[in-house]
Design brief:
alpha/beta; two-stranded antiparallel ribbon; Glycerol-3-phosphate (1)-acyltransferase
């Protein structure tokens, strides 16, 4: 069953990406291309993969804009899980390696998202500064996975990189944390398990940054990580008791 689900999900994902590439070609307004393609990813992949998603606090995705969305990062399954709530007028920052993925890399670039080279601090800083200008000048929001890569241990966050928090302070845009419940053991690609099951996603209260300076970056990152870790523990406990 795992392989049937995996193949069906992969085919659905490929179809959604091709749809997104078509949107990127014909639309002049790129701000909604990723949102619409993301909805297609959710529709075409969640059911084959056995994933049902319940979102709490979804209204917070739209109540404070522009903002910096920060989400935990567990596996490739984050894409179909989070795709259904991806907001419009939002750009995604991801490590540059995504550009080497067939179809996905081309669509990522064509839809106006931003690859970041974490191997070069100078280039990474320059990239973030360009994104900051887009937030200030065009009112765009930004979506970042502050862990920078997939977590190794279910239910635990990796240390946060500081880029999202420097950006929030530099632009004055509040942070909006998004927490996906622990996926394992119901959904575990390494262990060849794919549901069916329900995943809860929580959009937490915004974290304001007004009045903060560069000296507050570490404290802001620690505050955000603490809040997200608490929600992750709560979600993990709720799953075990269900």
């Amino acid at each position: 069953m795992f392989y049937l689900r995996a193949v069906a999900g992969a085919l659905g994902f490929a179809a959604a990406i091709l749809y997104g590439i078509g949107l990127a070609i014909v639309r002049r307004d790129r701000s909604r291309v990723l949102r619409d393609a993301s909805r297609a990813i959710a529709r075409l992949t969640r059911r084959p993969l056995g994933i049902r998603v319940v979102v709490r606090g979804e209204e917070r995705l739209h109540s404070t804009r522009p903002c910096i969305f920060i989400a935990n990062h567990q596996s490739a399954l984050d894409i179909p899980i989070l795709a259904g709530i991806y907001p419009e007028d939002t750009i995604l920052i991801a490590k540059k390696e995504v550009l080497s993925c067939p179809l996905l890399g081309w669509f990522f670039a064509a839809s106006g998202n931003v690859p970041i080279d974490r191997s070069s601090p100078r280039r990474a800083v320059a990239t973030l500064q360009r994104v900051e200008e887009a937030v200030r000048s065009h009112g765009l929001s930004v979506w970042i996975f502050p862990e920078g890569t997939w977590g190794k241990e279910p239910g635990r966050l990796l240390p946060f990189k500081k880029g999202a928090f420097r950006m929030a302070i530099a632009t004055g845009a509040p942070l909006v944390p998004i927490v996906v419940a622990p996926l394992a053991p119901t959904f575990d690609l390494a262990a060849r398990r794919l549901g069916p099951g329900t995943v809860e996603v929580r959009v937490l209260d915004p974290i304001p940054v007004a009045g903060l300076t560069e000296e507050d970056v570490d404290a802001l990152a620690a505050r955000a990580q603490s809040r997200m870790a608490a929600a992750l523990r709560e979600l993990g406990g709720a799953r075990r008791s269900a």
